[in-house]
Amino acid sequence: MVTHRFASPGKLPSETQVLISGGGPSGLFLALDLASRGVPSLVVEPRDSVDHARPRAKTTNARTMTHLRRLGLADALRAASPLPVDYSQDVSFCTGLTGPGAHELRRFRNAFQLVSGRYGPQPECGQQVPQPVLEEVLRAAVAASPVATMVTGWSVETIEDSGAGCTVMVSGPSGSRHTIAAEFVIGADGGSSAVRRSLGVRLEGGSAALSNMSILFRSEGLAAAVALDPAVQYWVVGADTSGMVGPMDLDGTWWAIIQGIDPQETVDTTTAGWMVRSLVGTDVDIEVLATDPWTARMLLSPEYRRGGVFLVGDAAHLNPPWGGHGFNTCVGDAANLAWKLAAVLTGWAGADLLDSYWAERRPVAARTISDAATNGKALAYHFADPALLASGAGGAAARETAREALAVKQSEFDSLGLVLGYAYGDSPVVVPDGSQAPVEDPIVYVPSASPGALLPHAWLDETASVYDLLGKGFTLLVDSAALAGTPAAEAFASVAVAADRKGIPVVIAAVGPFDDGTAPCELWGADAVLVRPDQHVAWRGSSAEAAAAALAVAAGWRPAEHNQQQNQHTEQEGKARVSVVVP
To answer: Which of 167, 395, 492, 544 is the most exposed, having the fewest neighbouring CB atoms within 10 Å of its CB?
Structure first.
C-alpha cells in the first residue's frame, strides 16, 4: 500500500503542528492518536510500501491491542492477521518438529496474552501478526483520517529548534529538498534516527556478541508433517542448529530465527535452506523467500526530549526481541506522548506535562531492556546436549532435566507483570497517596489503582469494559455505592469547576458493581479514581476537593501556576468540557 498525499515539493506543506519523522508502528500510532484528539500531524516516511519479506515483530501484546481498541482499530488488525488467535496460544520447546526425534520438552500456554474468548486483565488479548500487516492497517487508517497526513518517499535530514518552533529540512528521492516549520518534531525514525543525530544524542548500552538470522520460507508439507500440537513458536534444540520456527499464516508461509551466528558469516539461500531443514527435518520441502541478519541491541537514549523535539520508539531505545516487547514498548511511548502534545496544542496543559514523558517512559524502556537481555542469556542451545535430548528412551532423563531448566524462560512468554505492571508512581503529574505500589515482577501482574498504575480492568457485562467508560480526556470514575443516591456530577461538582476553569476535558462516570460482583471500591482501594487519557491512574481517594486539585496536577500545572490561573480566570474565559456518564 502506498500513501501519497503530496507528490512534489510544491505541494508539500510549509508548516504543520506536529511533524513525525518515521512511519513505522510508533510514528503511525502517534499520528492516529493525535488525530483522535483533533490534532493534525504530518508523517514523513522514506518507504513507499512495507516489506512483507521482513516481518520483524510478530507479537502485538494485550496492552497494545487495547490501545488499538481505543482508536477503533483492534478488530481491523485481527481481521487482517493471517494467523487467528484460535489457531494456537502456545510456545513449544522441542528437539525437532518432524519425525521420531521430535520430542516436546516444555510448553508455555497462553503465551503473549493469547487467549480464546473473553480476556480478563485487559479488554483485548494479544495477537500474533507480522509487523508489515500492522503497518498496513495503520497506513490505511492514516489515509482515511481527515487530519493525519503521511507522505512517502521523503526523509528528514536536519532539524533546527529556535525555541519558538522547529525548522525541518526534508529530502525527496530525486534529491529535491523542502523546508517545513513545525511546533513539535517527533523522531520515530528507528535506531539510526536522523532526528536523534540532529540533537547530537547517542544511544548508550551494548550489543550481543553473536548475531541471528531471520529466514522467511514456504513449505507445502511442513504443517502436515509437524509431530507436535500447534504452537505459534517452536523453539528447537537441534544437533546442528538451534533456533525457533513458527507459522506466518495458514497457507504454508513460515518464519525461522537461527540463533548464535558469527556476525562475519555470510549466509546465502542454500545455507539458509540447510539451516531451516536442520530445525524442521530433512524430508520437508523448503523454499527460502528472504533472509535478514540482525544482532540484539540493548541501547537507551539518555534524553527523550530537547525543546520541541521528542524521541519515541527505536529512536529512543533498542530492545532485544526476546519476549516480543520491542515494538509494543514503542507504541507505549507514542500513547504516552500523544495526549500530552494534544493538551499543549489545545491549551490546557501546564508546564510539567511534556517533561513527564521522559520521566515516565525511560524507566519502562530500561526495565524492558533488562528483562529481555536476561531472557537472551538463556537461549535454547544453552540447556543440554541436543543429540542426547533427541535420542530414544535413553534421552528421557535428559529431556526431563531440560524441561525443568526451561522454567527460566517463563518470563519471556508469560510476562503480564512487564506488559501491564509498569507504573508511573514517581511522575511529577501523578498524585501519590502514600500507599505501597505492588512489587515489580516480570511474570506476576497485581492489578492496582495505586497512582501511576494502569487502571485495573473489569468487565461491566458480557461485552462492555470499564475502559469503555473512559473519555478522550480525563475520567473520574466513582463507585456508585459511595454516592448514596447523589448524582456523581453533584457530589464531585468541584472537579467540574476545576476542569471548566482550565478547559481540561473530563468525564465523570458513576460505576456500579462489576460483572463478577466486585464493588469498584474493592478493586480500586478507594471510592474514586481519576484516570488519565492513556488509561493510567493519576489519583485515587474520596474527596471531591482532592480530586479537583489532582486534576490540575495531572494536567501538568504546578501549585503556583494553578493558583495564579484561578485568580486570573473570568467567567468568559471558561471552556466547558465536562460530561457526565451514568451507566
So the answer is: 167
